[in-house]
Amino acid sequence: MKNLYLLVFAIGFINTITAQNTTNFNPHFKASISSSKVQDKNFYLFTAIQNTPSLVSFLEENEKLEHIFKNKKESITANLKHKNLEIKPLIEAYKFSDKDIKTVSSILSKAANSNKALKELISKNLRPSGNYENFKSLENAEYITATWELCAKAINQALSVYGLGEKGRYHTIDSVSYNVNEKDYKGAIFMWSDMLMHKKEAPTQLFFQPSLDYTLALLYMNHRDEAARYEPLITRENKKTIAAITQINFDDYLYSNILILGNGPENNKDVLTALGKLNLQLGVIEFQKKNAPIIIVSGGHAHPFRAPFAEAIEMKKELINRYHIPENRILIDPHARHTTTNLRNAVRLIVNSDMPFDKLGLVVTNNGHSDYVGDDRFINRCKKELGYIPAFILKRTNSTTVEYQPRIESLHQNPLDPLDP
Prior knowledge:
α5 runs antiparallel to α6. By secondary structure, the chain is an alpha/beta fold. The chain has two domains: 208 residues, Rossmann fold; 185 residues, no CATH class. The N terminus is likely disordered. It has 18 helices and six strands. It has a six-stranded mixed beta sheet with strand order 3-2-1-4-6-5, sandwiched between helices.
């Protein structure tokens, strides 16, 4: 097994380096922003378009796209007139039909090589941002359609989950916050829609604007702003550590970081579980051996349902107060909700804090969890849920610790998991 891990690493590392040499990702790129951090983290494509006036004009003036926009507004307005508060037809009116998605894909695909504004959006914004890094090998036409179709699918899914109460991928922790059959909830659904349609001026008349605005409203209505909490980390919770990283000689260490995985409680009394505390102790042991200069703790508002605390913040407090780890040696990821995103978000922190990307890190967790991280089940789950492997899992150094090699694909947005995209 050890030799197999090393072989996978060797092949994968070569592929990673090759990809990094050809990608247009720029770690110093200044990303487009909107008034909503939740939007920027889930639907960067839409934010980037909204910030490009010439492209907005081109898309608004396209006859087929204008038709989609007007039809959607008319259908929504018609459903708002129903007095029996039937929410399903209203929510469905906001969704993109298969025909809509194909029409938009066709228009964007053709314009990718003919429209200057769209070509520049792809080459000078989307690709350098890294937000669609898993599509980097695609030509422009395929790249923009893949990006659009991902966003459209995510919009439709969010409307179903947070509008209609349908089950999402992780229903027990990521579901709608209310009983969708109650009159008050139905009333809120209708009144928010009416406000957006008739009282609040939309920033554009783009084909995606009504659906985007209502999706963001539903997330807000359901108190599902987890993606935006604590942002920007780089100037807030992680500021001191990022400043300290510039003074660290990473050549003095075997590894760049020690990633300690969380183990969320299932009640509102415990902020750390027995296994969560064990994970911290195990990570501290590796830190005290001077195996790496930085500890990364990962865990969001995942367990229990709508947890009032972020596990990573509680882990950081424990490291400082119990183990006296300096604050400027701890990076937090207060967003991850699953083991897959523990790894993915740690890689994002490595990139955003300018740690050496080619240096291995350590993943530390309890025995049972560590066995899972080093198993094919975990790799297959990453491929299924993220569409890629966020890091190569390499040699096991002991029963609770494995090496990992970051992969740049981890920058790729996943709006299908809107609470931690």
